[in-house]
Amino acid sequence: MELPVLNENPASKGGCSAGSCGSTDDQMNHLSDEIRAKVQNHPCYSEDAHHYFARMHVAVAPACNIQCHYCNRKYDCANESRPGVVSELLTPDQAVKKTMAVAANIPQMTVLGIAGPGDPLANPERTFETFRRLSQDAPDIKLCVSTNGLALPDSVEELSKHNIDHVTITINCVDPEIGAKIYPWIFWENRRIKGKKGAKILIEQQQKGLEMLVAKGILVKVNSVMIPGVNDKHLAEVSKIVKAKGAFLHNVMPLIAEAEHGTFYGVMGQRGPNAAELQDLQDECSGDMNMMRHCRQCRADAVGLLGEDRGDEFTMDKIETMEIDYQAAMEKRKVIHQAIEAEMNSKREVKAEKAEQFAQQEKMTTRPVLMAVATSGQGVINVHFGHAKEFLIYEASPDGVRFISHRKADQYCGGDTTCGDGESVLQRTIRALEGCEAVLCSKVGFEPWEMLEQAGIMPNGEHAMEPIEEAVMAVYKEVARSGKLDEVDQAERARAVA
Amino acid sequence: MALKIIESCVNCFACEPLCPSKAIYEAKPHFLIDPKKCTECEGDYSVPQCASICPIEGAILDAFGAALNPPGSLTGIPPEKMAEAMAELQSH
Ligand code: SF4
Ligand code: SF4
Ligand code: SF4
Q1: What is the domain class of B1-92 according to CATH?
Q2: What is the pLDDT of residues A235-252, one digit of tens each?
Q3: A206 neighbors A121 (Cβ within 8 angstroms)
Q4: Does B11 lie at the interface with A, CB-CB under 8 angstroms?
Q5: Which residues from chain B sit within 8 angstroms of residue A262, using beta carbons?
Q6: What is the distance in A from the centroid of ligand 2 to the CA of A343?
Q7: Domains of chain A by start residue, with CATH
Q8: Could you give the ipTM of this predicted complex?
């Protein structure tokens, strides 16, 4: 099959599994053209679009109908938000106003989600009133909703009436035995049902809801929280099942559990997975599922583009005083969206061409290498090592360059005098880069340079402002030429990834 | 006989729409039950609805002041464990 531009792979390269060759954005590889067209500009689905478009959430749904062991109900739904976050609850009316105010002021905002603070479908009136009014008054905004799935079958009909772009179901298991270790209770048919019995009902509802949505032609994404020792071994099976039923994406997220969150897992000392365990599971699943490796578990209440939060500009009292002419805003948004799309498309074409050229070249036999990249987006290396809030991790191999994940950095230098804790933060950042053999950034200071070298990570500031994939490949080839990567040594590779 | 919501309520709205007697209302700083209206769900359900969905241990009391969902009953966290974790946090 000839794959269109988004795929970015050299077409028909024999013998290479689709998930691991060519260039980045391989999370799109398996999608049909129709779905790809729907999601290519969606900030949640491609690393690329993440930097051009934004989504926002409104907190209209406070109630929940189940309990998850990683959630403390004093805070927002942990399925969609970082633990410990409390959002200001909005009425549907306030939510509609806020959404339109943000859309008028941040034209890149294309997706509005309802994800809590509880379960949106456990608050059907509030959730659906918000959707109803936005579908009507702001038809250029895509709507999405996240749910634990318990009330999903009852909501599919109503969901299909609105401008719903996709539904996210958090599915952590398909086995009630395992479910009982994740969900202590559900509220079902006017009673609280605990343990395996409750988990069984929840699982059945999730699966039924998934099937019904697919039958209606609504896109379904599945989120899973990876809980080591509980469902980590089980999630590959979950991945297979939800894909077979028609979910178009499966996103495995790491459990975040700290005692101070007051959650069951936090207090009981359940640990989250490390970067390598998460990556192994994502690799295991990606053979049969498209993964969202770039997902940053963004804060459900953040407003703005990736890495920025302009929430302060849109507090309720400020919004009340704004006059929004949405018709005019919609015109403006359309022009801006078209310009962004044109830019993204031309970048994709350039990448595809490069990949094509790459495929023509003689294949190397060197082992793969992980590299970290400091970027603030636009696909180029443009961040100073010490200013990087996160690093994108790429794997370079004879098959090409592929995006693996992002890792958070502790910013050790804010450029001011508050660097008291500098040492240890730098060390933590370097620890976050474990397994990488090089780090590409616009500049590296003297001190981190030495420490990086000691940690076996080669600092590289020679490719500032260059496109990421090209720079990573250039560095890879350089190292390969030096003879350091000869022979694909499995033990070596395992060490590099661990 | 009536149930009572106390200050540990987190205002999650879950109980309010379930009450068959319309006894629960939004109030500051937290939801309240009108004791004149609450029937403890007698005649409507075999279990009090508010206490069956409330996620917060200890937030709803019976007429004698006893928690319908005592510590540990909903989260599964043994109360000693919780106390330990909190003491540990305070000491930092
Ligand atoms: S579904 Fe969300 S709000 Fe409900 S218990 Fe789970 S994490 Fe918490
Ligand atoms: S016990 Fe029943 S009647 Fe009384 S407040 Fe709760 S839900 Fe309402
Ligand atoms: S369910 Fe519990 S926590 Fe939620 S509003 Fe009612 S009493 Fe408060």
Answers
A1: alpha beta
A2: 999 999 999 999 988 888
A3: no
A4: yes
A5: 82, 85
A6: 58
A7: 10-320 (3.20.20.70), 364-497 (3.30.420.130)
A8: 0.95
